[in-house]
Amino acid sequence: MDHIAELAGKDSLSRRYFMEMSAKLSLGVGLSVPFLPRNLKAEGGTAKNLIYIYLSGGMTHLDTFDAKKNSGVMGNTELLDTPVDKMKMGMHMKELAKQADKLAVINSMSSTQGAHEQGQYIMRTGYEKRATIVHPTVGPWAATLLGESGRVLPDSVVVGQSSSNAGFMEPRLSPLPIADPSGGVPNTDLAVAGDRFDRRMEMASKLGQQFVSKFKYSGPESYVEYYNQANKLLKSDELSAFDISGESNASDYGTGRLGQGCLLARRLVENGVRVVEVISGGWDMHVDVSTGTANKLPELDKAVATLLKDLESKGLLETTLVAIGTEFGRTPDINMNAGRDHYPAAYSCVLAGGGIKGGTVYGATDGSGKKVKSDPVTPEDFLATIGYGLGLPLEETVYSPTQRPFTFADKGKPVTKLFGA
Amino acid sequence: MKSIKTSLKTLSALSLALCFFASSAEARTWTSTDGKPLQAIFLGIEGDSYKFKMPNGKEIAVPKERFIKADQEAAERLNRIGDDSYTKASARKIDALLAAGLKKEGFSSFNEPLPDDLFVRRVYLDITGRIPTREEFKEFADSARADKREALIDELLLSRGFASHMFNYFADMYRLHASDFNNGVRMDPYVNWWRDQLEANTPYHELIHEMITAEGNVGQNPAAGFLLRDTGMEFDAFANFGQVMLGIDVSCAQCHDHPFDEWTQSDFYEMAAFFGNTQRSLGYRPSSAMMGGASIEMPNAPEGWRNQFMKWAENTKGIVPRDQNSNEFRFFVGALGWNVTDNEGLETILPHDFRGSGGKPNEVANPRTLIGDAAKKGGKTRREAIAEWLIGPNNPRFALVIANRMWERAFGRAHLIPVNDFSDDMIRGSAQPDVLKFITSEMKRVNYDLREFMRILYNTRAYQSIATAEEPDWAEKYFFEGPVLRRMRAEQAWDSMMVLAHGSEIDEKQGPDGSFYKKILNIDFQTASNDDVWEHYEMWQSARGSRMGMAMISEEEGGSMSPTIFSDSELRASELPQPAPAASMLDTFGQSDRRITDEHNFDGSVPQVLALMNGTVTTRLTGLSSKVVDDMEEFDGPDDKVRGIFHTLLNRFPTREELDLGMGMIEDYGDDGISDLAWALMNSPEFLFIQ
């Protein structure tokens, strides 16, 4: 172990080599993919960007993308036909239904995780939640597998969440968290007037020089760098990428967090941010699902429909993969509180843009939405499909600092049929 | 459990006594007013006399006034924390071993000695977890006492801040997490148990023994929180156990033979089997690799108690089974039953896809340790057996792991990296093997008294050296010519900000301690009537319904609850809910979210510096009405004001050049200039680092 560790410290090539060697020796398996240099896209989709809309709490599948003729499981929701024959939606999905030709709906999702945290974890990282390691979300994975852009703007952003991490990857790869899409990046309003601020920064830099030069450590130097970056960001026009107040069609997205989050995501993608997750809460409808859907579904419908239209008109839809994910569906049987409970056995997710073949319905549940009948898709498969769309090398092994090997989406199988003209 | 504690104490008392006579030449020399020396171990103050133990073993008492003033001051100090003869002898031994190792590698000796101003900042941060106040800094700088360094170290080791800072360390290591695990199930009493144990400086091995063998729910026995923390993730819990207590990451071996170490997959399950009949929580089905006809009951309750209580509640209190309106009642019963117990019907089973050597899929794994001698069962429960083996003489790693970790806390770098995963080869090939061996034996000699152990390290010449100027590569050997430069932990940064805002009184301010929740769950089912238990349910409802929620409620004298605590969040990090919420300053600066062990992160980030540049905390600390700026009123000249700001924020004297810069700022901009200067020091990297 120690000589391997010693060599591992030198550079990533020898480290990789030794990890592969030792894996071969002790597990009796070779890694199936030869060395893949960074920045070389693997075969796959054409997407450069990802907007992953995550509905936290568990979106009801029957009232949205897997609506059934069997009124026994539909509660107050009526069936809505779409221009695509096989694609049936709930009545609140009016605008998205019109764009059915852009959507690939997966109605055969199923997960083994029935609790929110565990369910969300696997849907966003592609790995089961463990108590010994934290797995990265798509943003840090993409930066690791495809390379970092090195620009002022971060490579990935998570909207609707107040903190983030990069799992076992370098902390600098953490998506920038934006809790409130209308609020922008926290602490970017100067505490004092501009010239005084500059005076302070100059003073801080002068007073810090002695200390920074006294120690040859990466820590203090990195702070100097972060101060430079922050100062640059405060003064750069790029900060305006986070400002949605000037958008003329802001109201088309809806005024709620989800709509504004999608608007911000579009702006960020336009400005070259590779991965944007938009987290929306309020989908856990144990009580009165009919009121819940009446509140939330029009919000979702409006936000995503406008997003797709906007991306299309700006010529960004071909290169931007839009995904809607959630941790599980909701029980087909309405409970005694007129609500629906957690249902990981069957649920729906949606993909659009980024090389996705629109007008597709993939997989199916039985007539009451209780069982997956064909083409089951796991959370790992779903994440792998997203990764495929982004051109991530799915077989490439990345090692954690504790030398554990990981691949994107934990060997999930991408549903490649969803891609193409 | 009593018996093990007693036998451990006897054992360590014996070894202490042996050491005592072996090296009594090391005893401190006391001086009488007429200049006569007395070499003896100080035992304490009794009335107007000091008690000593003479090298020949005899005890004597000498009147106080016979001693010179410096010795009287020393006696007052040692009376509170214990004689330091062996502390210092041990520190000298470490220095000698380190120096020999350094010499062998061609180093002349340690780094330059640390000057007083850097010393006072470092020990405050290292021992109490925060920077000193300006007053504390001045007091030390102005003191002419010859023993002022050891006196300050001792004073700080006895302060509440020591326990607070220790708590933050262990909260990260043991992943202390209080909030809802499941419908009102919380770990606050367990979290608070840690606070209490560290304040009492309970020997570390006793803590561990108690946690591993605990039974009941967290109200009945808060230490049970250790095992309950990972309910539903039993094998991960075992992997964590290996990391924090043995310094081995065995998690690979859960799914296959360990690729680099000697661990096989069956080793993993055989060792995990010590927890194989540990049942965690009522109604919870153990994971698929375990089996057995679990009879699910309340902790320490008569057979069938739960069913009869549910029936009684249905008949007399209007509880309706399976009705959502009775959910809260079910949560309450669930929380009562969220407990640890041994269930002989449970076993650890090798997984159906077992592919390691030395076993077959679905076989029962028998408990077996694989390092040192086997744990002996002999009439004990499996958990008692593993706990005794763990802290006992046949396990070569327990003292080593904690000694290595505590060393890292002092020096910023451990002998063995990472502290939670090192191989035997790494131990053999460590840079200063004699030192590692010695501190391991010292950890045993001091009987896992972590305060005494840290006292030794802080008294070494090696520790009291300036920080090494160049960052050592983690993969290269480091020979400890001094400590390394470290960034503050998130909690140190936060607590330093708190002391800037409030002064040293912040150390005494207490946060919510979860005692009301503990009271709710603490029921003796053997004697409690159904009405008694129902009363606890009513308490539960009142707490769940309160605006503050369960976590925030402490029990006041007389048993009523006080929801007033935590009206503000300006408390030291260890007093806040664990962990601090997302996007808080603590989270932004890298506090662990407590999902995995040792997850604290020391890296900088853009959001961090933005918070320091423009965040409310900064305005609160360096604005015109802040304590920092306001305190400068007492000085007339701009030069004294500049010194005052430097003493407050960086706890050092400004250089000539810095003084001129600061004075220029104040002359040009008045009070705004003071505020700007304070802001500038807060935003210079030096503030966040411990040198």
Shape of chain A: globular
- Which quaternary structure do these chains form? heterodimer
Overall average residue pLDDT of chain B = 87
Radius of gyration of chain B: 28 Å
| Spatial ordering of strands, largest sheet of chain A | 6-5-7-1-8-11-4-12
CATH topology of the largest domain in chain A: Alkaline Phosphatase, subunit A
The class by helix and strand makeup of chain A works out as alpha/beta
Shape of chain B: globular
Q: How far is it from the N-terminal to the C-terminal residue of chain B, by CA?
A: 44 Å
Strand content of chain A: 5-15%
Describe the structure.
The complex is a heterodimer of chains A (421) and B (691). Chain A folds into two domains: 32-184 and 243-418, Alkaline Phosphatase, subunit A; 186-240. Chain A is built from ten helices and 16 strands. Chain A has helices at 2-8, 12-27, 94-98, 116-125, 138-146, 194-214, 218-235, 257-270, 289-313, 379-389; strands spanning 49-55, 79-81, 88-90, 103-109, 156-159, 176-178, 275-280, 320-326, 329-330, 342-343, 347-352, 360-362, 364-365, 372-374, 398-399, 405-406. In chain A, the strands form five sheets. An eight-stranded mixed β-sheet of chain A has the order 6-5-7-1-8-11-4-12, with helices on both faces. In chain A, strand 15 and strand 16 (405-406) form a beta hairpin. In chain A, helix 1 runs antiparallel to helix 2, helix 4 packs parallel to helix 10 (379-389) and helix 8 runs parallel beside helix 9. Chain A starts with a helix and ends in a 15-residue tail after the last strand. In chain B, the strands form six sheets. In chain B, strands 3-4-5 form a three-stranded antiparallel β-sheet, covered by helices on one side. Among the domains of chain B are: 29-83, SLA1 homology domain 1 (SH3 type barrels), CATH 2.30.30.700; 164-296 and 347-391, no CATH class; 300-336 and 512-565, no CATH class; 606-690. In chain B, strand 3 (41-46) and strand 4 (49-53) form a beta hairpin. The two termini of chain B are 44 Å apart. The radius of gyration of chain B is 28 Å and the shape is globular. Residues 1-24, 283-295 and 556-568 of chain B have low confidence and may be disordered. Chains A and B meet through helix 1, helix 2, helix 6 and helix 7 of A and helix 11, strand 10, helix 24 and helix 28 of B.
